[in-house]
Write a sequence for this structure.
C-alpha cells in the first residue's frame, strides 16, 4: 500500500489500456505528440461517468481584454472550473475528467515497440567517426615509457622461456654414460625426447664426465629403467629459480585502447506532393505514414535531422509545421523535389557522415516522362540507405497516376528502394512495414 | 527521510510557529471561527503525494492516485512547484506547508488555510456528513480495509480493483443534498420501507437485534414482497445506496446474479461514505476558495501580515493565482464575496441616508453628497492607527480591545504592537478599519446605486428613527454589517445558491463574462451571449449537481424482470451517450442483471445541418425519447413516445444561450 504502488498500478493499467500502437498509427490523434515525445492516448483510464455532451453543454468564459463579440470563435472550450493553480484542499484530484490522458513514450521506446509489433530489426549504421576515446589500457606495444612496462607479462614470458629452455641436466648426463654413446648419439636421442638441449652443452658435459663413467650403463634402455627423469616443474618446485631470463624481446608496454565512436546520424528527407490533386484525405494519409517513420528513425539514431520538401511543379523547403498542411495549385513534377533533395543532401549531409532516408509521397501523378527520364536516374544517383515512395490514392488508381508503378517496376525487389501503397488508414501500418523492412534487409554497410 | 531533512524541516516549522499563532489570533479577531489547524512542514515530494491523495496521508490502494500523482508531478515540474497550500476538512484540520516556499508564501498559505478551516467548520453543507468529520482516521480505516481485501488470498486483487472502478464511476451519483446516512439507515429511512421502519420503531428493538434479525436482507425481501413493480416509490438519486441495498453481482461462470460478497458490500459502502465526505467541497469550491482568498488578502495586505519586504513576493503570488485563465474559482469567488460585502454595506448606508429628513429615493441623487458621505465613513484615526493613538484609546470603546490595551499600557513586551497593531482592536474596530466602501477600489460602488435599488430599499424600510442630518445618519451606520452578512452567507450557501443570489448583471458586465455554444454551421464553439442572464444560466448548469446530469433510479423491477431502470432528468442538455453507455456497463456489474437508461436525445440529420448552413442558421434538433438497455453483452436502443418521457422532461429550464438570429 502506498503511492509508489499506486503509481506502479497506474503504469500497468495505463500500459494495458493505452491504444494499441498499430491502431494509434492508423486512427489515433497524432497531433498531440511532439517530435521528441510520442503521446499515445490511453483508452479508458479515465473512468466513465454520466456527463453532459460537451458540445450540447457549452460553457462560460471570461474575456481577456474586453467582452468578446457574439459569434467570435472561442477556440477550445475552457475547462469547467479550470484553476491553473490546482490547490487541492481536499478536493478530489484529477476531477476534470474531460481531458485526455496520454501514455508518453520517447521515440526510442516507440521504435522498440514498433520493432516488436511489426517484427522489424533495423540496425542503425554508424557513420562519421566523431571521436576517439581512450579505453582501458588493454592494447600493448613493444616500446613505451618505463612506467607502462607490463612487468607481469615480462615475468611470465621469462618464466615460460625458462621452462621451455630448462631440462633435466642430470638425466642427459646419464645418457652420456651409456656405453658406446657419444655426444652425437645423445643429441639425436635428446631431440627425439624433446629435450631442449644444445649440442654445445652436450659436448661440454661429455668432456666433463670422467672416462671410466662413460660406460656406466650397457644400454639406453637400462639407463631409462633405472634413472627417473624429473620434470622441470618438479625441479623448480624443489630447487626454486635462481634467475628468470628477462629478454628485451619480451618487454611489452601497455597503452590504452582507442575506441572509435561512430555517430549514428540520420537525415530523413520527407518529400510531399502539394499540388491541387492532393486533397485533405490524401494529405492525412501522408502524415499518418510519415510521422511514425520520423519517430521511428529518431528513436533508432543518436541524432536525427529532417528536411521537408514540398513540391508541385517546383520544389521548396518548408518547416515541419507547414509541411502537412500546404496545398498549392500548380501541376506536378516530382523530379523537382529530387533535384532539391540532391542539392540539400550534398551540401549539408555528406554521405560519408550521414545515413540518409529519402521518403516521397503523393498520388502518383507526375508530368509525362518525368518519372522515367528524371526521377529514376536521380534516385539511382542519390546515395541513401533507402528511397521510398508512398502512393496515397484513397479512390484507387487514377489514369496517368503511374509514378509508383514505374518506380516499382524499375527497381523491382531492390533493397534500396521501397514502394508502398496507402489507400486508407488501414494500409498505413503495412506501408510502414514495407518501407522499414526493405531497409532492414539491406543491413550490410 | 534523512536527519538533515528532518532538522531542516524542524527549523522551518519553528520559524512558522509565530506566524501560525498570530494568524489564528487575527482570524478570530476578524470574526472567523476556524477548526484548530495542525501545520506540517513537508518537502516537495511529500507535497505531491499529499495532493495526489486529496490532502491526506493514507488512502486506499488504487491506480487513480498514481495517475493524479503522475499528472501532478508533470504539471508542477512545468509550473515550478511553488506556493502550494493544502488543507483538509477535518477537526482538527491538517495543513501542509512546503519546505521550499519562502516566508511570504508560507504566511499567505497560513492565512488562507485559517479561512478554509473556518469555512469547513461553519458551512452547513459540511455538516451533512455529521458534526465532526474525523476524516483522516476514517480514510485510513478505509485504506486498511481495502488493503486487507486485496491481500486476502480468497479475493483477487484485480477483482477488488475492478469493483472499486465500477463504484467510482458513480461516485457523484449520490444525494448530496441529504445528510449522510449509512445504507442500513438509508434502507430504514427510505420511503420504500417507511411503514416497516415505523413498525420496527414501535417495537423498540435494540440496535443489535435489529442488525441481526431485521437485517438488510430481510428488509429487502419485505420490499420485494410489498412493492412489486414500482420501487422506489420516488426516483432515487442515491444510486450507490440503492445498489448497495438491492444490487447483485454478476457471476460470469453461472451467468447469474448472485448476492454481493462481504467485501463487495463493504467496499461499496465505504466508497459511498467517501463520496459523501468529499461532496461538500465540490459543492462549495467557488465560495470556499473565494472566502480563503478574501481573508488571506485582508490579513496579508490589509493587516500587513506580509512584512514590507515580503509584500512584493506576496502580491506577485496573488496575481498569479487570480490571474490564471478561464473560469477561475478563486477570482470568481473573491469578487463575489467582495460584492456581498459591498452590497450589504451600501444597503446599510443607504438605509440610514433614506431616513434623513427630506431624503427620499426619488431625490436621493440630488440631495445627498455621496463624496461627503464617503469621507464621513473613513475610519476613525484611532482605529486606523491605534498604536499612534495609544494614549487616547478608551477601554470602554467597543472598538477597542480593553484587555490588550491594559497590557500595552503596562508595557507588555510580548505584544509586538508595531507588527500586530490589530491586537488593540475588537472585531468592530477591525470592521471600521477595513470598511469596504471607502477602499480605493470600491469608492465608486456607493455611487453606482441605481434608482430601482433605492426604491426597493426604501419600500422595505421601517420608518422608525429619523435623522436630522446626513452626518448623524452616517455616524449610526453599523460598519460590521458587511462582514456579518458574509458570515451568514458562508454558513448557509453552496455554490449554486451563492451564484444564483449574488451574480448580478453588474458583476457579469464588469468581468467580461460570456457564454459559448457549439455551432453546427461552423463546427466549432462560438461566443453566443454576453448577457448576464445567459451567463448565469450557464454557470448554474456548470455548478448544479457537480455540473453533471441528474440520473435517478426509477424502477428496481423494470418490466417485472428485476431489471434496473435509470432515468436521466432531461434539462435541455443531452447526455454524452458514449460515456453513458460505458457507465451503464459498470452499473450492470453492480446490479447483476440487465440495466436500462431512459433519456432524451437531440437528433439532427446531415441534411438539416446542410440546409441550415446554407441559410446561415443553426439547425433545430428534434428531441426524442430513448431507452438504452444493456443486458451484460450488448446494447439495445429503442425510441420512446413523448408520453413515456413526460416525467423526465424539465419544461421550466432552458440552458440554451444561442441568440435567435444566429450569425
Amino acid at each position: 500500500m502506498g503511492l509508489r504502488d499506486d503509481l506502479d498500478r497506474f503504469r500497468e493499467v495505463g500500459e494495458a489500456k493505452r491504444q494499441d500502437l498499430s491502431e494509434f498509427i492508423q486512427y489515433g490523434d497524432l497531433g498531440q505528440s511532439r517530435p521528441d515525445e510520442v503521446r499515445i492516448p490511453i483508452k479508458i483510464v479515465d473512468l466513465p461517468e454520466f456527463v453532459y455532451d460537451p458540445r450540447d453543454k457549452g460553457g462560460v468564459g471570461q474575456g481577456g481584454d474586453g467582452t468578446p463579440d457574439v459569434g467570435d470563435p472561442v477556440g477550445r472550450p475552457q475547462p469547467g472550473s479550470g484553476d491553473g493553480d490546482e490547490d487541492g484542499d481536499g478536493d478530489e484530484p484529477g476531477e476534470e475528467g474531460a481531458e485526455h490522458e496520454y501514455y508518453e513514450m520517447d521515440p526510442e521506446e516507440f521504435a522498440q515497440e514498433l520493432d516488436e509489433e511489426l517484427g522489424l530489426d533495423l540496425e542503425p549504421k554508424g557513420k562519421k567517426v566523431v571521436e576517439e576515446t581512450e579505453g582501458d589500457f588493454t592494447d600493448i606495444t613493444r616500446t613505451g615509457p618505463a612506467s607502462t612496462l607490463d612487468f607481469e607479462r615480462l615475468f611470465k614470458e621469462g618464466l615460460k622461456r625458462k621452462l621451455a629452455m630448462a631440462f633435466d641436466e642430470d638425466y642427459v648426463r646419464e645418457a652420456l654414460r651409456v656405453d658406446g654413446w657419444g655426444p652425437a648419439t645423445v643429441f639425436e636421442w635428446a631431440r627425439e625426447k624433446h629435450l631442449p638441449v644444445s649440442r654445445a652443452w652436450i659436448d661440454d658435459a661429455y668432456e666433463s664426465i670422467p672416462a671410466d663413467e662413460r660406460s656406466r650403463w650397457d644400454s639406453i634402455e637400462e639407463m631409462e629403467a633405472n634413472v627417473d627423469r624429473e620434470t622441470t616443474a618438479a625441479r623448480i618446485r624443489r630447487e626454486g629459480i635462481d634467475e628468470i631470463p628477462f629478454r628485451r624481446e619480451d618487454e611489452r608496454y601497455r597503452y590504452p585502447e582507442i575506441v572509435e565512436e561512430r555517430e549514428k546520424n540520420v537525415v530523413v528527407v520527407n518529400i510531399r506532393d502539394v499540388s491541387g490533386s492532393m486533397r485533405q484525405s490524401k494529405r492525412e494519409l501522408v502524415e499518418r505514414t510519415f510521422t511514425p517513420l520520423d519517430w521511428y528513425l529518431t528513436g533508432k539514431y543518436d541524432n536525427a535531422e529532417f528536411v521537408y520538401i514540398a513540391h508541385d511543379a517546383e520544389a521548396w523547403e518548408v518547416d515541419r509545421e507547414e509541411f502537412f498542411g500546404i496545398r498549392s495549385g500548380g501541376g506536378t513534377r516530382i523530379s523537382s523535389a529530387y533535384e532539391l533533395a540532391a542539392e540539400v543532401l550534398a551540401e549539408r549531409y555528406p554521405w560519408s557522415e550521414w545515413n540518409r532516408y529519402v521518403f516521397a509521397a503523393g498520388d502518383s501523378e507526375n508530368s509525362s516522362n518525368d518519372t522515367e527520364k528524371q526521377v529514376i536516374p536521380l534516385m539511382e544517383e542519390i546515395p541513401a540507405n533507402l528511397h521510398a515512395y508512398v502512393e496515397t490514392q484513397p479512390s484507387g488508381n487514377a489514369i496517368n497516376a503511374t509514378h509508383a508503378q514505374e518506380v516499382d517496376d524499375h527497381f523491382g525487389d531492390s533493397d534500396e528502394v521501397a514502394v508502398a501503397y496507402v489507400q486508407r488508414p488501414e494500409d498505413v501500418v503495412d506501408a510502414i512495414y514495407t518501407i522499414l523492412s526493405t531497409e532492414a534487409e539491406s543491413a550490410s554497410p | 527521510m534523512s536527519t538533515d531533512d528532518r532538522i531542516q524541516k524542524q527549523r522551518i516549522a519553528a520559524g512558522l510557529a509565530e506566524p501560525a499563532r498570530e494568524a489564528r489570533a487575527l482570524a478570530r479577531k476578524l470574526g472567523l471561527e476556524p477548526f484548530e489547524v495542525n501545520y506540517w512542514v513537508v518537502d516537495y515530494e511529500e507535497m505531491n503525494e499529499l495532493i495526489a491523495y486529496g490532502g491526506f496521508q493514507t488512502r486506499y490502494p488504487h491506480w487513480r492516485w498514481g495517475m493524479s500523482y503522475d499528472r501532478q508531478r508533470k504539471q508542477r515540474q512545468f509550473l515550478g512547484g511553488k506556493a502550494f497550500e493544502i488543507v483538509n476538512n477535518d477537526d482538527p484540520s491538517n495543513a501542509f506547508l512546503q519546505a521550499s516556499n519562502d516566508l511570504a508564501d508560507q504566511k499567505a498559505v497560513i492565512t488562507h488555510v485559517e479561512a478554509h478551516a473556518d469555512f469547513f467548520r461553519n458551512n452547513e453543507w459540511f455538516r451533512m456528513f455529521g458534526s465532526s468529520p474525523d476524516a483522516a482516521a476514517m480514510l485510513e480505516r478505509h485504506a486498511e480495509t481495502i488493503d486487507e481485501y486485496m491481500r486476502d488470498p480468497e479475493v483477487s486483487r484485480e477483482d477488488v480493483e475492478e469493483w472499486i472502478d465500477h463504484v467510482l464511476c458513480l461516485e457523484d451519483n449520490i444525494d448530496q443534498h441529504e445528510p449522510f446516512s449509512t445504507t442500513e439507515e438509508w434502507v430504514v429511512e427510505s420511503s420504500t420501507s417507511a411503514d416497516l421502519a415505523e413498525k420496527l420503531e414501535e417495537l423498540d428493538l435494540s440496535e443489535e437485534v435489529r442488525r441481526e434479525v431485521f437485517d438488510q436482507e430481510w428488509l429487502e425481501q419485505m420490499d420485494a414482497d410489498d412493492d412489486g413493480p414500482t420501487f422506489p416509490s420516488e426516483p432515487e438519486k442515491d444510486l450507490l445506496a440503492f445498489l448497495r441495498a438491492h444490487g447483485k453481482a454478476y457471476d460470469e461462470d453461472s451467468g447469474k446474479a448472485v448476492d454481493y460478497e462481504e467485501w463487495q458490500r463493504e467496499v461499496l459502502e465505504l466508497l459511498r461514505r467517501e463520496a459523501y465526505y468529499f461532496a461538500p467541497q465540490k459543492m462549495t469550491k467557488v465560495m470556499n476558495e473565494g472566502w480563503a482568498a478574501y481573508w488571506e488578502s485582508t490579513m496579508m495586505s490589509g493587516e500587513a501580515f506580509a512584512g514590507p519586504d515580503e509584500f512584493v513576493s506576496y502580491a506577485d503570488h496573488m496575481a498569479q493565482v487570480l490571474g490564471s485563465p478561464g473560469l477561475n474559482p478563486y477570482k470568481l469567488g473573491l469578487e463575489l464575496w467582495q460584492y456581498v460585502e459591498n452590497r450589504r454595506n451600501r444597503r446599510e448606508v443607504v438605509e440610514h441616508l433614506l431616513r434623513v429628513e427630506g431624503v427620499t429615493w426619488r431625490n436621493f441623487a440630488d440631495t445627498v453628497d455621496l463624496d461627503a458621505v464617503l469621507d464621513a465613513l473613513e475610519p476613525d484615526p484611532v482605529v486606523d492607527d491605534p498604536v499612534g493613538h495609544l494614549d487616547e484609546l478608551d477601554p470602554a470603546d467597543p472598538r477597542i480591545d480593553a484587555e490588550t490595551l491594559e497590557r500595552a499600557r503596562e508595557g507588555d513586551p510580548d505584544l509586538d504592537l508595531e507588527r500586530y497593531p490589530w491586537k488593540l482592536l475588537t472585531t468592530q474596530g477591525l470592521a471600521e478599519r477595513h470598511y469596504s466602501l471607502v477602499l480605493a477600489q470600491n469608492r465608486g460602488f456607493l455611487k453606482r446605486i441605481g434608482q430601482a435599488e433605492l426604491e426597493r430599499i426604501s419600500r422595505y424600510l421601517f420608518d422608525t428613527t429619523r435623522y436630522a442630518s446626513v452626518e448623524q445618519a452616517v455616524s449610526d451606520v453599523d460598519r460590521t454589517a458587511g462582514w456579518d452578512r458574509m458570515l451568514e452567507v458562508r454558513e448557509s450557501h453552496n455554490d449554486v445558491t451563492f451564484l444564483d443570489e449574488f451574480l448580478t448583471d453588474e458583476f457579469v458586465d464588469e468581468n467580461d463574462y460570456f457564454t459559448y455554444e457549439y455551432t453546427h454551421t461552423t463546427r466549432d464553439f462560438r461566443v453566443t451571449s454576453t448577457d448576464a442572464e445567459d451567463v448565469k444560466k450557464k454557470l448554474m448548469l456548470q455548478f448544479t449537481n457537480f455540473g453533471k446530469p441528474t440520473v435517478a433510479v426509477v424502477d428496481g423491477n423494470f418490466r417485472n424482470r428485476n431489471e434496473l431502470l435509470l432515468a436521466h432528468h432531461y434539462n435541455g442538455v443531452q447526455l454524452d451517450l458514449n460515456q453513458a453507455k460505458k457507465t451503464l456497463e459498470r452499473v450492470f456489474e453492480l446490479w447483476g442483471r440487465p440495466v436500462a437508461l431512459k433519456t432524451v436525445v437531440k437528433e439532427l440529420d446531415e441534411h438539416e445541418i446542410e440546409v441550415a448552413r446554407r441559410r446561415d442558421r443553426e439547425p433545430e434538433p428534434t428531441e426524442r425519447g430513448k431507452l438504452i438497455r444493456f443486458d451484460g453483452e450488448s446494447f439495445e436502443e429503442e425510441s420512446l413516445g413523448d408520453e413515456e418521457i413526460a416525467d423526465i422532461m424539465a419544461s421550466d429550464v432552458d440552458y440554451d444561450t444561442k441568440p435567435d438570429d444566429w450569425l
